[in-house]
Design goal:
Layout lengths: L7 H4 L1 H10 L28 H11 L4 H5 L44 E3 L12 E3 H12 L3 E4 L6 H12 L8 H24 L14 H14 L4 E5 L5 H7 L5 H5 L22 E7 L4 E7 L9 H16 L7 E8 H6 L1 H7 L12 E7 L8 H4 L16 E5 L3 H18 L3 E6 L17 H9 L3 H11 L5 H21 L21 E2 L2 E2 L11 H11 L11 H15 L2 E2 L1 H14 L3 E6 L14 E2 L7 E2 L12 E5 L5 H13 L3 E6 L10 H8 L2 H5 L6 E5 L14 H6 L15 H8 L3 E3 L4 H13 L6 E5 L11 E2 L12 E2 L4 H4 L6 E5 L3 H12 L5 E6 L1 E3 L3 H10 L4 E9 L5 H11 L6 E6 L10 H15 L11
Parallel strand pairs: 4-6, 4-7, 7-8, 8-10, 9-10, 14-17, 14-18, 18-19, 19-21, 20-21, 24-25, 24-27, 27-28
Antiparallel strand pairs: 1-2, 3-9, 5-6, 11-12, 13-22, 15-16, 20-26, 23-25
Helix pairs in contact: 2-3, 7-17, 7-18, 8-15, 11-22, 13-22, 19-20, 19-21, 21-27, 22-23
GO molecular function: metal ion binding; oxoglutarate dehydrogenase (succinyl-transferring) activity; thiamine pyrophosphate binding
Cofactor: Mg(2+); thiamine diphosphate
Main location: mitochondrion
């Protein structure tokens, strides 16, 4: 097909104006022969070609034609008929919707009946090659301007655009059999009658019902049915409150009595923790899909009130399920995310999650997003809640097609959802279904919406429910009878009443029925609970040597590495030969040993492949072949588990949520997220607060995720110093005032009872052990590690193989082992500390010659607090003053956490003095000199043996 360039002078002023109105480039017109014609082909029906005929031919043929681009702006999307889904009532002047506008295009009424040969780029003709202009316009309006509004012309892939056009333009595509219509009606009955039942039984309870968007239930079921038909076996869902109970009942198919019992006012918190409100809970269910007769696993991930926080968690869990199944193309496992319109537009984690969708180590090969578009956020008008025309505009950043649909047209909704599922399976890309609906009640059932939206709710009170409208339609066309419809209602009402009766049985009140990520077989061995012990975490020396050898080599031939990296590898070889490790090599050995044991290791975060501080280098880059890389860790053993190390997008909230979800999928994986600097977890605080610190208490969800947070006061400024340990310690659940009973298994029982583990290791060996302990424990807890910066290369921060071989373990406390320990009765001061400051203290003690007078003990595990070992250390030095020394400011760091615990274990008989920086607003100074002055000041205090004399406790 040759291209014909048309100059504006040849087109004439009217046609040029028309082209501009239609946004058609003058280079976009095409002729139908290899030789450019002198004029465009004439229409059938007499007369030569007019400018308008020529324009319409180009208009139909050009992929940027106006109905496809802007038809959604005039589509009838609002069921209430009072609002514009795009917040703009303006109708583009170039959309011909009435005969009155013919004059704008210089057309006469008779022109509409002329027939045109259709170009191959349109599908509106079906099997017909020619159509009248009137019919062309009618078909385009039916496709793009009725109850479905399509946004897809921004996609820069012609094949994908053509695929969508074919799905919607082809005549007769939205036809349903009588059986399909009856199924849709039955699903609407279940959706609506479930809400009605809850309203009758618990009229004064919050339940965040689905009234006004009952079609969401058949919509989700259609997506699942279609996906199951195409081979999907596992669907992972995330959603906020609205309609959650209905989804649990009618999509996941949770037993109704389990849902109803959650309304029991006498329901007590489960033994495992606090529990959560019913519309936050998740679940997991394996069942037969009755439409496809195939097995399918459905899980709904528990979610707090931070509505979109669950998005990356679902994506991480989905990625893990795909990984463990070997489902690289996402043909077996998929995710569905349900959003509210205000949250979808307003919460930044939505954007972060979308930007993970096509990254190699994070993609889930497409997600179906369903937006429940209430056209209101709590009480906020959408015009006050977003700047974009639609709440879904954020999806355009990843070229995801967006299908807006009037939620009071069930058949249109079902067709759109079917196409969305097929799109996801065909192109492995995200897609958005925007259900434009309304909220029949207020934000919750106790809320009065007339206060703030009187006109909207007057219309809602007059609105006929979608079930009645659709039932009347099917009865009128003879698909069902009134009696059949009423019997369907009565049948489901009986099911609800019978389940309500069973819900009174107290035996079913157990939070474990609401697990969204069960780990079968993990907590038991041969049907018996695991022993609450932790084996030694050391490994044989030959294994250490082997890992060190691989860590200092390049397993691939003809692979040229950077000369600077060659020096690093030689350094690793020398350390291995000398039976020592630094921080990076200790980490390498921990990971490598777990891989040999079949434990998948995944390390994610910004720049983790090399390491922010250029210490890790787990991915080697060929200096002469672009994109050729090598991961030596994956060449350790013949049958090892895989190691995944992946640089993430510049996101904390989204990526940490993703890794949390990844860790949920299996207990037999070490999943780590590393912050570029420790305080960068600030922007992921929601995931930490809502999922990590409280997840087990609320949802009985064990999770072994590890957070690596570089921490240390080194004069680098307030934004690159503190990982804010005080925040993690404040959220720890161990009791500062309870004097513990020191049983034989005190260490493990403490770990079992805590909500997470907080450590600050001062030696590479202890870092090695705590990583291995994380997997060897018979349960899973989140692990927070404050990792070093300057200690990565500190000459004293090295460990011997002797501290890592078989029989060795993690040391919660590292006691003094020098001259002071050999004569404890001579010691005048016992300093407790944690982390990097230990090396500053040791250096200062040596310079003052106080090795025999001052003992220094390190807390490696801060929470849960090692009461037993601290008690032993204090009793060992009965005549010594006790001091806590930290480099963080007094109102930060560890002091407020450790102080009351010291008082408890010492029975308040001996004070523990604070040594460190004074309270401050900022966590650190950016002035190097100020940093060194304050460091010297508190080190002087630490070793001034008269510093606390005369002071009262």
């Amino acid at each position: 097909m040759s291209q014909l360039r048309l100059l504006p002078s040849r087109l004439g002023a009217q046609a040029a104006r028309l082209l501009a109105a239609h946004d058609i480039p003058v280079f976009g017109w095409r002729s139908r022969s290899s030789r450019p014609p002198a004029t465009f082909p004439s229409s059938k029906g007499g007369g030569g070609s007019s400018y308008m005929e020529e324009m319409y031919f180009a208009w139909l043929e050009n992929p940027r034609s106006v109905h496809k681009i802007r038809g959604h702006h005039v589509a009838q999307l609002d069921p209430l008929g009072i609002l514009d889904a795009d917040l703009d009532s303006f109708v583009p002047s170039d959309l011909i919707t009435t005969i009155d506008k013919l004059a704008f295009y210089d057309l006469q009424e008779a022109d509409l009946d002329k027939e045109f040969q259709l170009p191959t780029t349109t599908f509106i003709g079906g099997s017909e090659n020619t159509l009248s202009l009137r019919e062309i316009i009618r078909r385009l309006e039916n496709t793009y301007c009725q109850h479905i509004g399509l946004e897809f012309m921004f996609i820069n892939d012609v094949e994908q655009c053509q695929w969508i056009r074919q799905k919607f333009e082809t005549p007769g595509v939205m036809q349903f059999s009588s059986e399909e219509k009856r199924t849709l009606l039955a699903r609407l009955v279940r959706s609506m009658r479930f809400e009605d039942f809850l309203a009758r039984k618990w009229s004064s309870e919050k339940r965040f019902g689905l009234e006004g968007c009952e079609v969401m239930i058949p919509a989700l079921k259609t997506i699942i049915d279609k996906s199951s038909e195409m081979g999907i076996e596992n669907v992972i869902l995330g959603m906020p409150h609205r309609g959650r109970l209905n989804v649990l009942a009618n999509v996941i198919r949770k037993d109704l009595e389990q849902i109803f019992c959650q309304f029991d006012p006498k329901l007590e918190a489960a033994d495992e923790g606090s529990g959560d409100v019913k519309y936050h809970l998740g679940m997991y269910h394996e069942r037969i899909n009755r439409v496809t007769n195939r097995n399918i696993t459905l899980s709904l991930v528990a979610n707090p009130s931070h509505l979109e926080a669950v998005d990356p968690v679902v994506q991480g869990k989905t990625k893990a399920e795909q990984f463990y199944r070997g489902d690289a193309q996402g043909k077996k496992v998929m995710s569905i995310l349900v959003h509210g319109d205000a949250a979808f537009a307003g919460q930044g984690v939505v954007y972060e999650t979308f930007h993970l969708s096509d990254l190699p180590s994070y993609t889930t090969n497409g997600t179906v997003h369903v937006v429940v578009n209430n056209q209101i956020g709590f009480t906020t008008d959408p015009r006050m809640a977003r700047s974009s025309p639609y709440p879904t505009d954020v999806a355009r950043v990843v070229n995801a097609p967006i299908f807006h649909v009037n939620a009071d047209d069930p058949e249109a909704v079902i067709y759109v959802c079917s196409v969305a599922a097929e799109w996801r399976n065909t192109f492995n890309k995200d897609v958005v279904v925007d259900l434009v609906c309304y909220r029949r009640r207020g934000h919750n059932e106790m809320d009065e919406p007339m206060f703030t939206q009187p006109l909207m709710y007057k219309q809602i009170h007059r609105q006929v429910p979608v079930l009645k409208k659709y039932a009347d339609k099917l009865i009128a066309e003879g698909t069902v009878t009134l009696q059949e419809f009423e019997e369907e209602i009565a049948k489901y009402d009986r099911i609800c009443e019978e389940a309500y009766g069973r819900s009174k049985d107290k035996k079913i009140l157990h939070i474990k029925h609401w697990l969204d990520s069960p780990w079968p077989g993990f907590f038991n061995v041969d049907g018996e609970p695991k022993s609450m012990t932790c084996p030694a975490t050391g490994i044989p020396e030959d294994m250490l040597t082997h890992i060190g050898s691989v860590a200092s080599s390049v397993p691939l031939e003809d692979f040229k590495i950077h000369t600077g990296l060659s020096r690093i590898l030689r350094g690793r070889a020398d350390m291995t030969k000398n039976r020592t490790v630094d921080w990076a090599l200790a980490e390498y050995m921990a990971f490598g040993s777990l891989l040999k044991e079949g434990i998948h290791v995944r390390l994610s975060g910004q720049d983790v492949e090399r390491g922010t501080f250029s210490h890790r280098h787990h991915v080697l880059h060929d200096q002469e072949v672009d994109r050729r890389t090598c991961v030596p860790m994956n060449h350790l053993w013949p049958d090892q588990a895989p190691y995944t190390v992946c640089n993430s997008s510049l996101s904390e909230y989204g990526v940490l949520g993703f890794e949390l979800g990844y860790a949920m999928a299996s207990p037999n994986a070490l999943v780590l997220w590393e912050a570029q600097f420790g305080d960068f977890h600030n922007t992921a605080q929601c995931i930490i607060d809502q999922f990590i610190s409280t997840g087990q208490a609320k949802w009985v969800r064990h999770n072994g995720i590890v957070l690596l947070l570089p921490h240390g006061m080194e004069g680098m400024g307030p934004e690159h110093s503190s990982a804010r340990p005080e925040r993690f310690l404040q959220m720890s659940n161990d009791d500062s005032d309870a004097y513990p009973a020191f049983t034989k298994d005190f260490e493990v029982s403490q770990l079992y009872d805590c909500n997470w583990i907080v450590v600050n290791c001062s030696t590479p060996a202890n870092y090695f052990h705590v990583l291995r302990r994380q997997i060897l424990l018979p349960f899973r807890k989140p692990l927070i590690i404050f990792t070093p910066k300057s200690l990565l290369r500190h000459p004293e921060a090295k460990s011997s193989f002797d501290q890592m071989v078989s029989g060795t373990s993690f040391q919660r406390v590292i006691p003094e082992d020098g001259a002071a320990a050999r004569a404890p009765e001579q010691v005048r001061r016992l300093i407790f500390c944690t982390g990097k400051v230990y090396y500053d203290l040791v250096k200062e003690r040596s310079s003052q010659g106080l090795e025999e007078k001052v003992a220094i003990t390190r807390l490696e595990q801060i929470s849960p607090f090692p009461f037993d070992l601290i008690k032993q250390e204090a009793e060992k030095y009965p005549g010594a003053e006790l001091a806590w020394c930290q480099e963080e400011h007094k109102n930060m760091g560890y002091y407020d956490y450790i102080s009351p615990r010291f008082m408890t274990i010492l029975r308040r008989a001996r004070p523990i003095w604070y040594v460190g920086r004074d309270p401050a607003a900022a966590p650190a100074t950016g002035n190097r000199n100020t940093h060194l002055v304050s460091l010297k000041k508190f080190l002087d205090t630490a070793f001034n043996l008269q510093a606390f004399e005369g002071k009262t406790f």
